[in-house]
């Protein structure tokens, strides 16, 4: 779902809230009037006085018109007092807006209200969650203790390295903007790449940015399917290009052919230096990346992204309920 579609749906939701509030107010009013016939009589008298005031004013009878207007005010005061005796007020029969700022119109001063922006954020989070376990991924649930202090054959501590990556990820999420670097997270399966990428995505979403998460396998399968159907670039590809932050997960799992390579290169090249992207992959060595893709793709991923190598032991083997990554 692209940005335009998100805002269209958000405004539709706000409009439905307005309609619901108005219908509920009408039902409350009907119930109150049905239980208290005096209200109908007071409204009838007020309306009659108002009509008479208008006719008298049209005939030039100014003083008589003013008397009728004062009568209207007295009847209105009587109605307010009667409602007070019932423990009610005029507001009791008014719509109860979901958003008092815009009264569920979706706009304030010609601009989208904050309630629309919140709905857009909710819809994007819902969309992201359809593709990845966003609600389960957060910095708070990222367990650094799962990474060993030492591993045979390594001259660095996995835990210290991952603590460094973790702090960088937190800073990245909190300071994210259009000028942020792209991230290339690589390492063996089960080391928390997806978890950390989605933790960043969650914070960036909460800060009001447009975030798209998709696995490489699903992304390129969908692009291929849409190419077969329509033979042209799809709205989905445009969504990938335009997202403030794109998380392209599990790069290397997609079916690879000439078309996929060209789409991947176009995606990387178009977003590079314009829109930040987080790539995660189990491809650990530069030679493997070169063998699978092209030199242009590999050089952009390794040369133009901030690289984060994940090392340690498969978290899923330590905890069968752990998230993928």
Query: For the residues shown, what is the average pLDDT?
Result: 88
Counted by DSSP, the helix tally is: 12
Physical arrangement of strands within the biggest beta sheet = 4-5-6-3-7
Strand content: 5-15%
Radius of gyration: 31 Å
String of helices and strands: HHHEEHHEHEHHEHEHHEH
Distance between the termini: 25 Å
Task: Describe this protein's structure.
It is a single chain. The protein has 325 residues and is an alpha/beta fold. The chain is 57% helix and 10% strand. It has helices at residues 3-35, 37-58, 62-85, 114-131, 158-174, 193-206, 216-230, 235-242, 258-271, 286-292, 295-303, 315-318, and strands spanning 107-108, 111-112, 182-187, 211-215, 245-251, 277-281, 305-310. A hairpin with a 2-residue loop joins strand 1 and strand 2 (111-112). Helix 2 packs antiparallel against helix 3 and helix 5 runs parallel beside helix 6.
Question: Would you spell out the secondary-structure blueprint of this structure?
Answer:
Blueprint: H1 3-35, H2 37-58, H3 62-85, E1 107-108, E2 111-112, H4 114-131, H5 158-174, E3 182-187, H6 193-206, E4 211-215, H7 216-230, H8 235-242, E5 245-251, H9 258-271, E6 277-281, H10 286-292, H11 295-303, E7 305-310, H12 315-318
Parallel strand pairs: 3-6, 3-7, 4-5, 5-6
Antiparallel strand pairs: 1-2
What's the quick description here?
By secondary structure, this protein is α/β, with parallel strands linked by helices. The chain has helices at 3-35, 37-58, 62-85, 114-131, 158-174, 193-206, 216-230, 235-242, 258-271, 286-292, 295-303, 315-318; strands at 107-108, 111-112, 182-187, 211-215, 245-251, 277-281, 305-310.
């Amino acid at each position: 779902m692209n940005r335009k579609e998100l805002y269209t749906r958000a405004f539709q939701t706000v409009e439905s809230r307005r309609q619901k509030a108005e219908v509920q107010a009408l039902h409350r009013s009907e119930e109150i009037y049905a239980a208290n016939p005096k209200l109908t009589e007071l409204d009838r008298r007020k309306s009659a006085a108002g009509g008479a005031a208008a006719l008298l004013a049209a005939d030039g009878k100014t003083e008589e018109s003013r008397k009728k207007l004062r009568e209207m005010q007295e009847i209105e005061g009587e109605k307010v007092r009667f409602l007070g005796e019932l423990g009610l007020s005029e507001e009791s029969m008014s719509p109860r807006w979901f958003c008092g700022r815009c009264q569920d119109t979706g706009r304030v001063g010609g601009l989208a209200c904050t309630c629309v922006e919140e709905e857009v954020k909710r819809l994007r989070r819902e969309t992201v969650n359809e593709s990845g376990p966003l609600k389960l991924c957060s910095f708070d649930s990222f367990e650094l203790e799962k990474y060993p202090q030492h591993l045979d054959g390594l001259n660095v501590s996995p835990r210290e390295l991952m603590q460094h990556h973790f702090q960088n990820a937190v800073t990245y999420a909190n300071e994210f903007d259009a000028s942020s670097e792209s991230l290339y997270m690589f390492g063996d399966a089960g080391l928390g790449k997806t978890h950390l990428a989605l933790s960043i995505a969650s914070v960036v979403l909460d800060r009001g940015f447009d975030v798209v998460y998709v696995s490489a396998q699903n992304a390129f399968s969908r692009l291929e399917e849409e190419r077969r159907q329509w033979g042209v670039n799809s709205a989905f590809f445009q969504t990938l290009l335009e997202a403030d932050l794109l998380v392209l997960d599990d790069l290397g799992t997609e079916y690879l052919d000439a078309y996929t390579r060209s789409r991947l290169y176009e995606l990387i090249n178009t977003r590079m230096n314009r829109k930040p992207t987080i790539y995660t992959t189990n491809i650990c060595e530069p030679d493997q990346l070169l063998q699978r893709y092209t030199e242009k793709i590999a050089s952009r991923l390794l040369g133009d992204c901030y690289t984060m190598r994940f090392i340690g032991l498969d978290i899923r083997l330590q905890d069968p309920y752990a998230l993928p990554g």
